């Protein structure tokens, strides 16, 4: 009888180990969700404040979307409409208390789809990462980031008005 009792208690270590493993997996999952949400929130940090400033201090009455451009200076790039329905792009600098806004009328620029068509004609084997309006040295540009067939990461800047190339950076992959 003593032997039968020990047979039922010996696999107890297995039950405890599985319980500890389950608790660790649960805590790691919860931590992962919290970390993901925190990173997502930090990516869009300041968007609400920018939105309020733009709506209260400019002629923009509707904001369609907000993106971020990071160059020598960081900007929130606001796509919106004014009371006349005219579509505008506003570069809202993130640095400093006094904001010098740069506003562009979307009817005067080459649309991103046209720039992408031009780029795709030159680089058929490339994989687009993103396209966003950029402001470098007070020059309004389209910033295209992509990977080419040589596995380089490329940042290409084109004029937002005529599509001419402003500058290009190529980065070779160090590790494979």
From TrEMBL:
InterPro entries: Cystatin_sf, TseB-like_dom. Keywords: Membrane, Transmembrane, Transmembrane helix. Pfam families: TseB. The chain crosses the membrane at residues 12-36. Coiled coil: none annotated. The lineage of its organism: Bacteria, Bacillati, Bacillota, Bacilli, Bacillales. This is Cell wall elongation regulator TseB-like domain-containing protein. It comes from the Bacteria. It comes from Virgibacillus indicus. Residues 49-93 form the Cell wall elongation regulator TseB-like domain. Gene3D superfamilies: 3.10.450.40.
């Amino acid at each position: 009888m003593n032997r039968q009792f020990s047979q039922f208690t010996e696999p107890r270590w297995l039950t405890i180990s599985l319980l500890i493993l389950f608790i660790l997996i649960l805590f790691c999952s919860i931590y992962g969700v919290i970390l993901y949400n925190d990173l997502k929130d930090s990516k869009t940090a300041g968007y609400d404040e920018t939105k309020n400033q733009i709506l209260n201090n400019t002629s923009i009455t509707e904001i369609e979307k907000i993106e971020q451009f990071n160059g020598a200076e960081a900007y929130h790039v606001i796509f919106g409409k004014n009371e006349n329905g005219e579509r505008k792009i506003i570069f809202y600098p993130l640095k400093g208390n006094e904001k010098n806004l740069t506003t562009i009328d979307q009817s005067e620029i080459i649309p991103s789809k046209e720039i992408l068509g031009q780029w795709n004609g030159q680089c058929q084997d490339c994989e687009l990462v993103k396209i966003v309006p950029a402001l470098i040295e007070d020059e309004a540009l389209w910033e295209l980031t992509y990977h080419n067939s040589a596995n380089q990461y490329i940042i290409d800047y084109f004029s937002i008005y005529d599509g001419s190339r402003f500058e290009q950076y190529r980065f070779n992959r160090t590790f494979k």
